[in-house]
Write a structure and sequence with these properties.
This protein is 44% helix and 11% strand. The chain is of the alpha+beta class. It folds into two domains: 2-93, no CATH class; 106-171, no CATH class. The strands form two sheets. Strands 3-4-5-6 form a four-stranded antiparallel beta sheet, with helices on one face. Strands 1-2 form a two-stranded antiparallel sheet. It is elongated, with a radius of gyration of 19 Å. The N and C termini lie far apart (52 Å). The relative contact order is 0.11.
């Protein structure tokens, strides 16, 4: 936060905040614990213990999220209500970068491992290549970004995977 000409505090835009300032401002205000690689603590939206995390990003200065699945816009609104960041709507591109750099949901990682096991057992036909490719990419992301603990209701996540086209409900 910085002072404006009129002496009011200007609140940082979350999309322009550096890792160091996010670590200092958000880490201090939210009582987040950790080191230089990741800070975690109670989620500002749902209040869950050790669910909220912030860490340096690969293509963004920093990324954040809730292991319980709170929406980015809800978290930003809560941080804005507390006067920590500007209330802004992140572009779809920025949200997608957050998701790509964040931990992979447990159930999605489990699905990817199952796909690879099936391919190893039965082989892969031409029409299965798209699914196999998605599974391989999920596993690469999981190795790079980690996997969230199993926290959300399995059936809700299963429905999301069907909606995203990652699971064909007729084959189950």
């Amino acid at each position: 936060m910085a002072m404006t000409r009129k002496g009011k505090l200007s609140v940082n835009s979350i999309s322009e905040m550096s890792w160091e300032s996010a670590r200092s401002i958000l880490g201090g205000a939210l009582n987040l614990k950790g080191g230089s690689k990741e800070l975690k603590g109670p989620c500002p939206k749902c209040g869950g213990t050790d669910r909220f995390w912030i860490r340096p990003g690969h293509t963004l200065p920093f990324i954040f999220g809730c292991r319980s699945g709170c929406d980015y816009s809800q978290i930003i609104k809560e941080l804005s209500d507390r006067g920590l960041v500007a209330n802004e709507k992140l572009s779809k591109e920025t949200v997608n970068k957050f998701k790509l750099e964040g931990p992979v949901p447990y159930q999605l990682h489990l699905w990817a491992l199952l796909v690879l096991d099936i391919v190893a057992e039965e082989g892969c036909e031409e029409d299965d290549m798209k699914t196999f490719s998605k599974a391989a990419n999920v596993i690469k992301r999981a190795k790079r970004n980690g996997v969230t603990p199993m926290g959300r209701d399995f059936f809700w996540t299963h429905a999301e995977l069907i909606e995203k086209g990652l699971i064909d409900d007729e084959c189950i």
